[in-house]
Amino acid sequence: MTYQGLKLTKYSLGTGDRFAHQAKAQLQACVQALAQGAEVIPVWNKSNREHLIIGSEPASVRQAADAAVQALHWKLPYYCDADHITAETVGRFLAPCDFFTLDVADFIGQAAPPAEIDAFVKRHAELQGRIEMAGADEAFEMTTESLKQTVRKFLGAVKKAGEVYRKIEKAKGAGNFIPEVSMDETDRAQSPAELLVILAAIADEGIPVQTIAPKFSGRFNKGVDYVGDAAQFEREMALDVAAIAHAVKQYGLPENLKLSIHSGSDKFSIYPAIHRTMRRSNCGVHLKTAGTTWLEELIGLAEAGGDGLELAKEIYAQAFAHRAELCEPYAAVIDIDPAQLPTPDAVRAWTPEQYTSALRHVEGSPAYNPSVRQLLHVGFKVAAHMERRYLDLLEANEAVIAKNVTENLFARHIAPVFLGVTGDGARQARNADSFVTEKA
Ligand SMILES: [Zn+2]
Known about the structure:
Layout: E1 11-15, H1 23-35, E2 40-47, H2 48-54, H3 58-71, E3 79-85, E4 99-103, H4 114-123, E5 129-131, E6 140-142, H5 144-172, E7 178-182, H6 192-204, E8 211-213, H7 230-251, E9 258-261, H8 271-281, E10 285-289, H9 292-304, H10 306-321, H11 323-327, H12 344-348, H13 352-359, H14 370-377, H15 380-386, H16 388-396, H17 398-419, H18 423-429
Parallel strand pairs: 1-2, 1-10, 2-3, 3-4, 4-7, 7-8, 8-9, 9-10
Antiparallel strand pairs: 5-6
Helix pairs in contact: 1-3, 1-17, 4-5, 5-6, 6-7, 7-8, 8-17, 9-10, 9-13, 9-17, 17-18
Zinc ion binds next to loops.
């Protein structure tokens, strides 16, 4: 198969802008990356769930992105991602989006008809026995029976992705959008061998997939660090990358196919592993960091003091009062220790510095409170209900908020992942002319 049309390049950053006010500050982080020698393509993503909670339309994401690109004279590509959509929810995303994350996690385990499973196993003799992959120091071993089990688990889900893909293709035309397939919102990680089988099935479905989001082992909680074995993550990622390269050759998938890492914000302990793997394998990643920008809005409001600080405290008080209901939809991706949550009265007495240092995710900072951060992360509904009152304060404090948004994306995310620079080095990188990075 040869593919024509939109092509996502090596490094890309999925970024979320819940209240559609920070696109410019987010793009500024990509401008800084470019100045350091890395082309990091911005992709604004917003899921249907977020749109429902905020009460926004997908077209607003496109408008904000277009305006930011114009304001900063960004000449490289940029995209709007219909994140985690299904056949039922894709409709209103068709016109404004050019990147579609086909979410099939809910269909994993719903077996395809036995005849289709048998036909797949028959068609793919190359997936039975020992599979050697270039660049991997481990081979995969699959028996006919283990292949059959894997196919039973995933074929139905991939066929669902095919349905959604064809629906989008019919509306937009092949090549006019970037398809991603995601399976991350499920309870069990997929092994690299399973990923290879999934990719074979995706190729059979004729989906020109450019990014694939498996669930990795370890915990990817929202807005906080990775919990798990970083060395094991690195081995797993290297095998996933080898499986992708193998599938591209074997099944003719698009050559730019790469991993998409969801809930990718703040996974500081595995960023060095991600960077090393990209360097070793000469591959790229798409890093999705959706919710972190909204927290920078709160940090900026608190830092501004006055009405901004008062509002940030009120949001905490309301989030605290409604914590059970706010956390419920995200139960699988947060770990809040209730004993670590200060009372709203205690927070009401905080200085700007106390609020920002509790919320800001700085490794090793004794004041940083991951439970406060996770509660506020899922608490954006509180701000959504404030409507104009919240937005007016965002606008009144634009400069201080923008500074935090840009700094967070550039120094804490782009620099360690794409430039391989962490800690103080990353914060200094933006101003130092002597800073050189190898263009991987
Ligand atoms: Zn996801």
